[in-house]
């Protein structure tokens, strides 16, 4: 399977890229068989994307990336939050792709920002954009604020690592054509001693 | 193989002087360019059609009629005639009239236009662009071939017992090309009728146009008009030429950098590498033009865009002189190794001869 992560991070090193890498790894872990992972940095294509806007056609380098994205079995799309939305570079990249090319494509959306106050950008900007493109957007979207990178990573408080893992599982499931596996119905009773033991362990 | 020029008819300031020609100057420049085309031995002059500034040619048959009166051999054509927003009845009549006045030196190219608001300005819906092109052309095709037409369609008021006048010269419709930048539907339409297909070729990389041309050739054969290499293909191209390559680059760069279509985007070097634009010596123009044949196969018509990006008339006329000088080489090179089975672009005389042959030998018709 082919998985392409698109990172619109601008700095180097970039937390957007870091998040893209972690999400790609989590998705790969959820997939059986060979997975070809490619991470694309839009920064390297910034001028090509602007030229495509002006001329109407992509350069050879941009064409190759667009082909990789449109031919992938799944996409991870990660943007920094700029001025209360996705970055212009991120949007411009998807603007120069045919608006039917991502129809039915599993997509995992993610964003990074300085504070958690912008996390709904995922829901009011990225999700509607990919809905317009008729992509299948994974239910879990991952937002990483600066403070999240210092989180404890334990399984109780649902910090960044657990959200990454869940999102990767979501995307892997969509790429494999699986429906959700959560059980419905009866409440599952975990004996109290086990709950106590689990807390002490961590 | 026919060689010619096509013009968009834009009024663009000369970026080196800031001077913008008046509409009158631009219109007169276009006709001067057409006369020069005949003088240097070119075969075709084609004008665009637009209904908004900064473009001037809203009335192509008026302009082409004037040029027809001043020329002897030049084929007068369009690039393109808006089959979507014009009434096909008026196209049938205007171009039949032009055909008579020009003694048959007329063909035309159908297109859908490049400006969204033109549709509502003419009472049409841009979302129906392709259906309009299909239905309107079906009517136009009929009006030129049947003396009395009954018609009912989706987009136009019905016609009962209608005869468009004048009838086409010698009873033979002008040859039609269908121009397209991106739509496979138009390549299919051209193939269905056995009409010509013209690939704009100037703004985008050639592998894009190769796909459209290959599709057209394949469908042309499917509809029984001949083999794929007998399909009638035209291509655009654009150049800026000086005897010395460096002079061409230096002189054209400010025009390129500020051109309405691609200015302020990629560098001239990137653009010439990825598209058919060539800026250089006559030899470089010859080589790039010949390379289209490698990509598209033997074809019938090559049109160059010469009066673009705000170039002054004097420079454009110099470009045409230079084109005239390399024309014998281009003709000789395109003729080399061209199979006898590949037809020329149909002229009026050829279409009349074919019609007469079909009448006397109905079996082969």
UniProtKB/TrEMBL annotation, chain A:
Domain NADPH-dependent FMN reductase-like: 1-149
Domain of life, per lineage: Bacteria
Entry keyword set: Flavoprotein, FMN, Oxidoreductase
Any single Pfam family the record assigns to this protein: FMN_red
Gene3D superfamilies: 3.40.50.360
Organism: Actinorhabdospora filicis
Entry's Gene Ontology molecular function annotations: oxidoreductase activity
InterPro entries found in the cross-reference section: CE1759_FMN_reduct, Flavoprotein-like_sf, FMN_Rdtase-like_dom, NAD(P)H-dep_FMN_reductase
Name of the molecule in the record: Oxidoreductase
SUPFAM superfamilies to which the protein is assigned, alphabetical: Flavoproteins
Transmembrane segments: none
């Amino acid at each position: 399977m082919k998985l392409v992560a698109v990172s619109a991070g601008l700095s180097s090193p970039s937390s957007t890229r870091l998040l893209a890498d972690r999400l790609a790894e989590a998705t790969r872990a959820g997939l059986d068989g060979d997975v070809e992972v490619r991470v694309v940095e839009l920064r390297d294509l910034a001028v090509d994307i602007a030229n495509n806007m002006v001329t109407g056609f992509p350069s050879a380098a941009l064409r190759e990336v667009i082909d990789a994205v449109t031919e992938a079995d799944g996409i991870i799309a990660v943007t920094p939050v700029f001025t209360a939305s996705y970055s212009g570079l991120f949007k411009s990249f998807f603007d120069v792709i045919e608006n039917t090319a991502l129809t039915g494509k599993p997509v995992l959306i993610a964003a990074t920002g300085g504070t958690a106050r912008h996390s709904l950008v995922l829901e009011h900007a990225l999700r509607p954009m990919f809905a317009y493109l008729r992509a299948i957007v994974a239910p879990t979207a991952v937002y990483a604020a600066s403070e999240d990178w210092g989180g404890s990573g334990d399984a109780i408080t649902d910090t960044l690592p657990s959200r990454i893992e869940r999102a990767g599982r979501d995307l892997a499931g969509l790429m494999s054509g699986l429906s959700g596996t959560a059980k419905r119905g009866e409440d599952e009773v975990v004996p109290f001693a086990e709950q106590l033991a689990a807390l002490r362990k961590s | 193989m026919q060689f010619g020029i096509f013009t968009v008819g834009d009024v663009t300031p000369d970026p080196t002087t800031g001077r913008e020609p008046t509409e009158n100057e631009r219109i007169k420049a276009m006709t001067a360019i057409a006369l020069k085309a005949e003088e240097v031995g070119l075969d075709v002059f084609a004008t665009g059609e637009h209904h908004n500034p900064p473009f001037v040619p809203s009335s192509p048959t008026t302009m082409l009629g004037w040029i027809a009166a001043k020329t002897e051999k030049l084929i007068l054509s369009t690039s393109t005639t808006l089959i979507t927003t014009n009434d096909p009845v008026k196209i049938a009549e205007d171009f039949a009239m032009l055909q008579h006045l020009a003694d048959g030196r007329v063909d035309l190219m159908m297109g859908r236009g490049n400006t969204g608001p033109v549709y509502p300005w003419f009472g049409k819906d841009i979302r129906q662009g392709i259906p309009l092109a299909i239905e309107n052309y079906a009517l136009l095709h009929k009006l030129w071939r049947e003396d009395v037409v009954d018609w009912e369609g989706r987009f136009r008021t019905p016609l009962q017992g209608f005869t468009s006048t004048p009838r086409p010269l010698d009873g033979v419709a002008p040859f039609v090309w269908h121009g397209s930048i991106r739509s496979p539907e138009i390549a299919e339409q051209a193939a269905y009728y056995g009409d010509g297909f013209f690939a704009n070729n100037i703004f985008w990389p050639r592998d894009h146009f190769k796909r459209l041309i290959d599709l057209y050739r394949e469908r042309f054969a499917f509809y029984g008009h001949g083999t794929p290499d007998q399909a009638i293909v035209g291509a655009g191209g654009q150049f800026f030429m000086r005897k010395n390559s460096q002079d061409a680059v230096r002189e054209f760069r400010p025009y390129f950098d500020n051109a309405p279509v691609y200015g302020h985007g990629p560098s001239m070097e990137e653009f010439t590498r990825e598209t058919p634009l060539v800026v250089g010596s006559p030899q470089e123009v010859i080589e790039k033009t010949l390379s289209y044949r490698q990509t598209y196969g033997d074809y019938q018509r090559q049109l160059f865009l010469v009066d673009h990006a705000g170039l002054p008339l004097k420079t454009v006329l110099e470009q045409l002189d230079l084109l005239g000088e390399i024309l014998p080489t281009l003709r000789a090179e395109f003729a080399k190794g061209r199979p006898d089975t590949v037809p020329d672009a149909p002229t009026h005389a050829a279409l009349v001869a074919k019609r007469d042959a079909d009448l006397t030998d109905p079996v082969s018709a």
